## 1
Amino acid sequence: MLLIDPLVEPPNVHLDLPGSKSITNRALIASALASGTSELSGVLFSEDTHVMIDSLRKMGVAISLNTDSSSASVLGAGGALKGPSETLWVHQSGTTARFCLPLAALCGVEVEIDGDEQIKSRPHRELCEALESLGVQIEYLGAPYTFPLRVNGENLKGGQVTLRGEISSQFVSAVLLAAPCFPEELEIIVEGDLVSSPYVDMTIAVMRSFGADITRISDKRYAVAPTGYSNASYLIEPDASAASYFFAAAAVSGGTITIDGLGSQSIQGDIAFLDVLEEMGAEVVRSATSLSVTGTSSFSGVDVSMATMSDTVPTLAAIAPLASGPTTIRDISFIAKKESDRLGALVSELGKVGIDAEKTETGIIIHPGDPQKATVHTYDDHRIAMAFSILGLMSSGITLDSPQCVAKTFPTFFDVLDQVRAAGDAKLRVLAIDGPAGSGKSTLAKKVAEQLDLSYLDTGAMYRSVAAVALSESAELDDEAKIAAIADRIVIRFDGESVDVDGEDLTETIRGPQVNAAVSQVAANPGVRSVMRRQQRTWARIRGGGVLEGRDIGSVVFPQARLKVYVTATPEERARRRSLESGRTVEDITEEILQRDTKDSTRGDSPLVADQDAVVIDTTGKTIQETADYIEKLFLR
């Protein structure tokens, strides 16, 4: 459960968003099929893209990842994919499921593909029948035309294939991506309307960047020569679908949000969402390197077809209640077959928050209203969760029942959302105290909080609580996803010195030797840190400020804190203090402290550093009272 903290000030920020999921997966496939090594930058690392990477690796493609630089190096297979020794498990990724069907055929042997229950409810029949018409044998191990199934492309041929376009453009993209590696030229004919056609344009653009020979005979007819792919260096744009949430936030809040790196020449069709916001009254500035939206005093309803940008339908639906008139969204009936029945979900959840919304023959009508407090069911659909988060910025009391589903395409969504709140957070009376282990920051923070009459948050106890629960459940600390899920699930409460977790007093447990040994690894988990940062920010917003201490409070959690202090001391001094507390030898503790310093300063997520704006205080030889008085003066001046 996550209560969305509302805005208190309109935003005025530039945002750097992760790479496009759609482009990332297409570039991964093109580079995997190419000859030679390709270098990809701007890569999105999310559940969906990791599923694609895992599938390609199982088919013999060597992929080296660098999450810190959002890059990947792919040694292409030259079109000769290998039969995997195990099942390709596509989880809930519709893109991976559809794209892997023709890729599996390129292996020339039997390949089994399966996935989670959610993916089995999505349509695949048209793609399966198209592949079968090209000589691919498909054995259905359960219900026809869905997973689990076995693909055998031993008799794969080129020629001509017809695909229906009104259900999903992914069917066309899937065949297009594999076609350069077919044994013969392939001509694809699209029958009926092609929904989300800009995604096919995107597919072709990516393919051509890797040397594919594609002829667009007409809007519904393509010819692909069997020339394969060439290796390339390729920059992936920020995700335009993800950008829609922040553009919407600007439009309804009266603020300004600029997305850097996403320009007017983007190959993503979802930048057309800006045209919709402009029609509703927002000001839009487009350049080759950025896109910007500013909200105005006018925000009216709109009547619009969104067949070509359907992923942004939940975004528009979530802000439509704030318009001055009704909003009609047309030509989107096919989104009922997405990760969830998005039409039904939007009508239901808007109704929960007191908004009148109704289905039409091809879409939805949403009437203006005053949103009420409610818990929104996300249907494990990332786009429902992110869309209603934007409504939550404008209306108090919007809670998401399963916020973790945003990891499917945008794991850092809530961190970026907090950047939108930066103007309001800058007005909080926050004192951030950071420093290495044993620097005395906890004792100091409590003392300063008392002198300033501010609340104190023991952030270390939060990480210790996660570690304690993980140990009690015998969870593997190396399983980052599971530990992060524990952090997201548990409820931590403080009452003076007492720490309560899910109704159980863990005050003593979290200070025990087992937790001491585990907490460093838990605290280095990016997923855990993301959850804790979210909770720490909410804690301070509720109180109008407070004293928070840790290792990234000033540098990451509250970079706009009123005062940032970085306290330190020599390793020997820190060891001496801990020796007095524990009775252990200074030598043993010094070694532990040095190891902890190295681990904290080199971790990938929020490494321990003194923020450039922080006041650095060496507490060696100083009393707590002397340091506390000095910090108090700095805070009040």
Note: The two ends are 39 Å apart (CA to CA).
## 2
Amino acid sequence: MRRIVGAAICSILAAFLLPVQPHPTFAVPSPPAEAAEASLVEAGTVDAPLHESHAADVAAAPASASTHQLLRPEVQRLIQATNWRGSDWGVLAVSLERGDTLVSMESDRPLAPASNQKLFTSAAALERLGPDFRFPTYLLTDGTIEQGVLEGDLILYGTGDPAISDRLLGSASEPFREFAQALTRKGVHTVSGDVIGDGTFFNGPTRHPSWRPNSLDHWYAAPVTALTFNENVVTLRIRPGGPGNRPQVRTVPEGAELPLLNTGVSVTGSPAAPLQVIRNAPDDSIQVRGQMNLRAGEVWRVMTVSDPEAFAASGLRHALAEEGIRVEGASRSLGTGERSSVSGLGLVAPAFIPGSEGRTLRTLAVHRSPPVSELLEVVNRNSHNLYSEALLFALGRITSGDGSFVGGSQALEEFLVRRVEIPGTELSIQDGSGLSNQNRATPSSFVRLLYYVSASPYADTFWASLPEAGNRLELGRMYRSPAAGNLRAKTGTISRVSALSGVVRTGDGDFVLFSVLANNVPSTWGAKRVEDDIGIRLASFVRPAGSGASDPSVIVESGPFGPRLSPQVPVDALR
């Protein structure tokens, strides 16, 4: 029996355009080595004017003279010991129980935060989407099934799931195999039309204009799309062919169809020109050229894909073939000027295809991502840019209908200014990952965010996503120190920028929220040593006898991964 797209897809698409609630209900009910820094590779210098000297600061929290700034002299000595002229540091550490500031240096100066930006995105995603939200990906058709033949196209429609890969699933192709099996159960053995990848749920450029052009082939700068497969990267495996023949090029995942021009030659002697895998621009074809000796070992190259939607469609087509389903058409994305049958103005009645009376869309199968709580572990422990940007685009989509860098950045800034009450002058939001060197934030803005999170219902989920110091699988730094197994923080690294922000428990049991931002440093490795020394000093800090009683208005509980404040605590308590 033919039917229009089910209520599930209607509700999710319509609800993405409704006014934002703290936890929107647009989700379809769901069925019952040290982390790599994603932006570690040089991503550009900080080009905004920054101060060269450390001026006097105003502490972010009130305190008595006996407890205020107890650690500032030590932190100053650690920074000055680097002898880096022209470097710019901002540091803030605030005790939750005592309400005082242990150290504040240039805490209100906007600096490039690198991947500490992900803390902002993570908190907004938990509040706006909720920790249990799952991104659905739909298998749709505009045709009918007659005697085992699906007469029409298959449409693979994404809504932002970044996790169709082997990172959190058994394999990148697992959802596509499930889709193929769903078709087999319906008796389908042939698809007469195309397999179309539709990523129009998001819009705008897939890479931020400020991302460095020479980084766009690398996995950490993968394009951001609503339909993502294998994190929008492909691995090329190249081996020699027969004498005088083209080298053999295989892909991981298998069956991926790519715009690729192979002019290489397999030779018996020394290559006159080395084998090269190049691409002039991220949307151009990949070129394999030069010569490869017959005895050469296999060459591997990981690259971002130029057309993620077509790449995903080819992955589905390959899964269909493995299930014994023949596709007579091609695998492709929507062509230039071709209108999506699902997104756009047809949201009120997405089942109707403009200009095709009598034809309707039907939902054949749905795959749902892991919950946001699990996605955030990838965002923060692996510092994964694509996951973070997918959440940013989703925030823009639910807030204003603009699933792009612009829409997402506006939604994130609105959350930070209106909900967290960070002054807008302290922020410049360009992306959700921190890969852009044009982002700006202050140490006080991060501490204020961490304070806000501590009083939220998702505090445990947020803290759990942050890497743990001394854990070789998370944040191996500060191993065998008082910070090990204690401090949880987000790292950050781009060219000449390093950052560390999070929570640590002192030697006398107080939770301390802290943020360290360093810009214009000649060595990010050296900056991280200073960050570690500050973290260790905070973890081992014990107050002098008789100093600073706890603030009775602040009730701090110890969760499994960090502090939880009484929900009655006002945000102004941090001021």
Note: DSSP finds eleven helices and 24 strands in the chain.
## 3
Amino acid sequence: MATDHAQLELLAPAKNAAFGIEAINHGADAVYIGASAFGARSDADNPVADIARLVAHAHRFHARVFVAFNTILHDDELEAARALAWQLYDAGADALIVQDMGLLEIDLPPIQLHASTQTDIRSVEKAVFLDQVGFSQIVLARELDLPKIREIAQATSAKLEFFVHGALCVAFSGQCYISHAHTGRSANRGECSQACRLPYTLNDTQGRIVAHDKHLLSMKDNDQSANLRALADAGIRSFKIEGRLKDLSYVKNITAHYRTLLDKLLEERTDYSRASSGRCAYTFTPKPEKTFNRGATDYFVNGRQADIGAFDSPKFSGEEVGRVTRVGSDYIEAELDVPLQNGDGLSFYDSHKELVGLRVNIVEGNRLIPNAMPEDVRRGMTLFRNRDQAFERLLEKKSAERRISVAMRFAEQANRFVLALSDEDGCTVSLEMVSEKQSAQHPERAASSVREQLGKLGNTDFIASTIEVEWSQPLFVPVAALNALRREAVEQLAAARLSACLRLPRRQASEPPAPYPDDVLSYLANVYNHKARAFYEKHGVRVVKSAYEANEESGEVSLMITKHCLRFSHGLCPKEAKGVIGVQGTVTAEPMTLVNGKEKLTLRFDCRRCEMHVVGKMKKSWPVVLTTAL
């Protein structure tokens, strides 16, 4: 169980080094980023040199850089993965985020390991096992509620990480194979085709339509803004924002939002502390509703909720701003709840319930002149704003400053002056300046003049919290000498801070090897190489089946396992509504089917566990596709 004065870490996504630097500037205690290969977002790869640049910036604030190394690996990729891991270690990366247990059986550098969300940590037993085999930080499944999180925290010593914002995978993470089955693109290898965002028609066992052409596997976005205190008290120590493919305004806005909320919590609770240094000042007020989202849900943290799906559209509709009152040949008039500006982006649901977007070129009161008139806009339709031009322009500029508090003391000694600096983390430097003592010509302003010069910290990482001047009498100190002394002291303090930013220690696995909770593993364990197989066998597993991506499964299997239940969301849960009268009579709920064009998926329900299984089979024998070699 975590100890008192536990650090709370805000973990933000970085598509690239520039995004990661801005995440740090906007308050992240750590960022996670993909390397040149083996990350579970193939469109967010980065060269090692860029990661080194991000590390250098992050470490100035004692913030950390974690590298997503979380695909499953083919045997032919293990050597390339080993070589890349050492390059990342040499670049200063603080941890590797890992899914494939085969990595624990190769010659990795002494770098901290974090268990990726794809390791599917939903049980105490799984968490304890990963805790025992050497993971320092483990990402709990998004589907967990507060009592289960608390139970895991009480049973483990690893830092617990939890997603608090962003897109939700409807499947248990690492347990979705629809993309590979239908397209040959594996989600576990960074190439998910996002079948969950497609429209489907839901039929019951007699072929009757329960829902038509809806995005039935698409979830609203995760938003735990109201639950941070409860999550911390349950044992969460790292609060993770989803979004390695999101744009820069999202990273800035959402990072600043959660930094603000966590700072308020830290001000109220002395038993928690920050995980990095510095305080942020923003040129904008964070507003999470302004950047991409599909609506908000806290998912299962407070138990099963009735409305967690984004069934109407997987796109960003935006905030409601008014209603159409008139449609002209090249304009729209609307009764607006908020003023709009030239360049704003709007959206509306047309008569087919499809989300349509438009850009407003000119706003003349309640008259909106778009860049192109949409075909199906009508009187009475609700308008949403999904791009606030003024807000976006604030985020396009420099929008945050992060400064580390430093106490400065300028003191007279026998034949010299001494400038001592001490920052908020206890890093200190002291410099001497030999100088002839001269009485100040204007003694009433002498001390304030010294403080003014020393406080000019400009574009450095520091801001003076206090500046003390200690002398026997007001003395004259040349401005140029003071400035040179300050610059040298700040440079030395920055160097001292980097020296104090020590590597995170690698945890050692327990001996003898901890037993895995099960002795038989199906394809759901995602074992794709001989090293992963050896890992599980070492930990007592007797039977290890190959990953689904090995194409050894035949016939129908569970292509997705999810806590989201379409019976429940349509009022057909036998626990909640026995005997419900549905479309054209009593709906027989199992099996149900999802249909998208020629694709047909069968739904089966495990009511004891409150789980839905999406069942299907491989469309054809897809070839093994290897991650790009280094």
Note: The CA atoms of residues 80 and 630 lie 6 Å apart.
## 4
Amino acid sequence: MPVRQLPEQIVNRIAAGEVVERPASVVKELVENAIDAGASRIDIFTDGGGRRRIGITDDGSGMTYDDLALAVDRHATSKLDDEDLLRIRTLGFRGEALPSIGAVAKLGITTRHGSEPHAWSLSVEGGVKSAIMPAALSHGTRVEVGDLFFATPARLKFLKTDRTEAEAIREVVRRLAMARPDIAFTLAGEERAPVTWAAALPGAPGRLTRLGDILGADFRSSAIEVRAERESVVVEGFAAAPSLTRANALGQYLFVNGRPVRDKLILGAVRAAYSDYLPRDRHPVVALFVTLDPQEVDANVHPAKTEVRFRNAGLVRALIVHALKEGLAREGRRTAANVDGAAITSFRPSFAPRPANWDWRSSPAFSQGFSPAASRPSFEAATAFAEPGQAAFDVGTPTADVRFEQAPSADLLDRPLGAARTQIHETYIVSQTRDGLVVVDQHAAHERIVYERLKASLSRNGVQRQILLIPEIVELDESTVEKIMARADELASFGLAVESFGPGAVAVRETPSLLGKADAASLLRDLAEHMAEWDEALPLERRLMHVAATMACHGSVRAGRRLKPEEMNALLREMEDTPNSGQCNHGRPTYVELKLSDIEKLFGRR
């Protein structure tokens, strides 16, 4: 087959296949054009999930007659001052959006520049331009897109339902609205009730206001401001406390120089920063904004401009991890999954109606000589704890050796975790504060303490170790022994010295001092299970932290152990001095706090 030049209409449709993937892609390109035009208000309307109609109106600078004539030609753009693709300061720069949309849909543009006496309009249908005509518009630009993909019917088969496409449009607008809180957005359509995000004040408060409007009040109340800067690279934004998580990573919003992106490097950095706070199956909610010199980032990686490439990816990743860890450590009390009012929802009063054939004479009260008043309503006010709460507070007989006979001292009541009052189920410590009470999971709390000690010792001068007088021989299967010995050097850095002892056994000669008398066999088996899940690409630092977390679990106070009053108070004081003590190494909360005002509400005192 001979080589031939493709017609312009075919070239435009091929380009449209890259740029215009679905109606949400059209909305993204048009809204980005409005932002680059300096708009302070952008209105978006869709019908049929964007398939039948998309309308974008802005109050930006608009276009002149000559600009409008060029705007729908391929690779014509006003967003590059020169030919340097390494200094891109706008959201759009390829000059493909409008001609690509016009190639597969019915496109109409009405615009007015401040220097023109009136507005001008132009239409493109299936790649064919009309003449430019005078029009009526006070200022800015209005773009109408109808019958999307009418020129490429095959693409229509790949679109999803109107509701699904409308939700994709909503997500695109949400991300752009997060990036520019100074711009007011309105999103309306037949598929949804209109929503408006008013323009917010500049700076961090305005950004948090916009994020709260979009992500909800839960995010606003748990948001922690984060910021880090190095070598002209700035990472800032807000991260939710570990008490607010999602089942997937869709709650992580990332922006580079104001551009919403999906970047594996940034997502990996977020996961690493939260690794000490969350269970493996939970994901944090964050909105991070990376600002750097345009020459340090390549935005020309993907036709849809959703991916970027950093010149110094290591620096960006390190800054994100540092900013998040510093913010979470700074707001240590707020990082606990217990101060957002969630605990109080475990105590739900329930009122069970009596059966229709209920007879008060068959009740236990009648057998004891009581009779109800004739006019009393036939409802049994049987208040009960919800099952999760009841399981924790069904204490049975108090443990005799941990009941306090004297009132706690005033200085202990003023401490963040208060004064220990009792231990229930030999697992939970109940302490009293000045304005409430705290329930502590003793194992989870001590696990975090040991973990942080191991990390600090490792970074300082190595983990102190104790030599076993008689090496402990642990029998394991051969594959497990191979996994253990392959990581012997990493284990040694934590004070766990192991040697091969035949094909199916390991000799443990030294253990970390912090662990005390550890069960070496159980510890090695758990370590081997975790090693089986490691990816070889996992950084050494993360592998070491996995080892530390497993060791901390084995070296901490176990549930079921009775503690003396002084031991309980000592544990509370150590928690107050330990970073990230709101969660154990697996992301579970270490304590639950109930304010006195919440308790009073439960009993109708407020």
Note: The CA atoms of residues 397 and 463 lie 42 Å apart.
